[in-house]
Structures are given as C-alpha cells and as structure tokens.
Amino acid sequence: MKVEIYSDIACPWCYIGKRRFDRAVEQFGGEVEVVYRPYQLVPDAPAAATPHRAWLAERYGPQSRAMDDRVAELGRAEGIAYDFDAALEVNTFLGHRLLHLAGTEFGAERQGALKEALLAAHFSDGVDVGDPAALTEVAVAAGLPRERVEQYLAGDEGSAEVRAELARGRELGISAVPTFVFEGRWAVQGGQETETFVQVLQQVTAETAAEGAAADPAQAPAAGDGDACADGVCSV
Predict the structure, then answer these.
(1) Domains present along the chain, CATH in parentheses
(2) Domain DSBA-like thioredoxin, which positions (predicted)?
(3) Which long-range contacts (CB under 8 A, 24 or more apart) does 186-190 make?
(4) Using 50, 70 and 90 to split pLDDT, how confident is the model at 62?
(5) For residue 152, what pLDDT is reported?
(6) Average pLDDT, whole number, for the chain?
(7) Do 179 and 189 form a contact (C-beta atoms < 8 A)?
C-alpha cells in the first residue's frame, strides 16, 4: 500500500500525526510505502528566522500561548518534547527540497528518517531549518551523505520539482495538513488517533482487494477530520 503524506516541517500537528501514523503502521503489520509530499502553511514566510513565540503572538494574540500549551501536552503523550521557547519560524522550502532529495535518491525509509529529524530539529532543538548549514547537519545525522547534501543545497536542484508537487497538492484540494492520501484514492485529514489510522489501513486493504472498488479521492474511509493546521492556523 502506498500512502502519500502532505505535511509541513513547521506544522506541529504534522509531528503528532507522524508519530501516530508510524505506530499505526507497526500495529497494522502490512507492507506500507510512505512518501512525504510538500505543503507550506506560510509559503511567503521570510528566509530569516524569527522566534516562534513572538511570531505566533503577533499573528494570534493572547490565544497563541494556549495553542502551544495544548499541542505540547498532546505531544508529550507521543514522546515529543516541544520547545516553543527555542523554536524558530522560517520559510520551509529548503527543507522540502531536502526531503525531495532524500526520497528520490535514497528511498522512502531514508526520507522518513529525515522528516522525523527535521521535525525534531524545528520543534525540539531550536534549529533554523531555513539555514543550509544547519540543514546539512540534520541531513547527515539522518544518514544522507554530506558531500551530496552540500552540493544539492548550494544549487537549485529539486526546486522546480518541489514547486510542481506543491501545485499538485493544491490541485487535489489539500488545504490543511497533515493529509494522508491512501493509494491515490482516499484522503484522511488531521492527526488522527493511532487506532483510527489502523482502521483506515485495514479498510483500504479490504477496499483495494475487492474487485470494482469505487475510487473517490475525496471520500475518506472510516475517518472524520482530525486536528490539523491550515494557512498557518492550527487547531486549538
């Protein structure tokens, strides 16, 4: 089964959703190929990093602290240590280019490892994920070869491809992340509970095994909308 996950490095619900989905795949036990697709919550975010607390407060005012607190509490249950005091907000396009490199040249498993590393770098370690030097260190720690990463980030490789994937996501109607697309046919939005993801994996398996299964990419099997982020706004 192939699952394409549209998400952003700067999306806290994408981190929670990844942890829950990873656990669901383990419980499901079947063969699942996971491919990460790019999405930018704030596509016009500047290249210079800004402290997360100040950035969020400017956009959402006093409720921004409650937003962070709720996500941090839920994250702890998934083994995630959010550090919003250290986190930096920055344009994530470079990070998505790096994920494209990992997926196309080193495979889905390495791409997944890099995705986990980038989320941890951004949300737990206060790393500027818009800085090529910092991104290089994260990528190398995730198993990518330093020379290739440095060469890649020094040029414009992958930019056109990532822009095309971003456009493809818009064409599919994806407006919030994380969004999980199963077999190119069913979309499930939000950081669902692990049990829900397991049920979806089982149902997709049953649907694809049945002859003449209806293909409707807008209809999610056995799952309602979960908590997600859209246009820079996250569920509280």
Answers:
(1) 2-234 (3.40.30.10)
(2) 3-202
(3) 186/216, 186/217, 186/219, 186/220, 186/221, 187/217, 187/218, 187/220, 188/220, 188/221, 188/223, 188/226, 189/220, 189/225, 189/226, 189/228, 190/13, 190/17, 190/225, 190/226, 190/227, 190/228, 190/235
(4) confident
(5) 98
(6) 92
(7) yes
